[in-house]
Specification:
By secondary structure, the protein is an all-alpha fold. The protein is built from 3 helices and no strands. The protein has helices spanning 2-27, 34-42, 46-49.
Length: 50
């Protein structure tokens, strides 16, 4: 039973940290241009190969 006393607060803390990181990424514009990143990955740059 003492393991649950440690695991439940740790799980809640990790969940809150994950939520805070997700909300920070939303606020800083990390998800604004999802299509642009996909096209840049597929785009051939001939100048970089030389």
């Amino acid at each position: 039973m003492t393991a649950l006393a440690w695991l439940i607060p740790c799980a809640l803390l990790l969940g809150l940290l994950g939520l805070a990181a997700f909300l920070w990424s939303l606020g800083s514009g990390q998800f604004e241009d999802l299509d642009g990143a996909a096209w840049r990955a597929l785009q051939d740059d001939e100048q970089e190969r030389s």
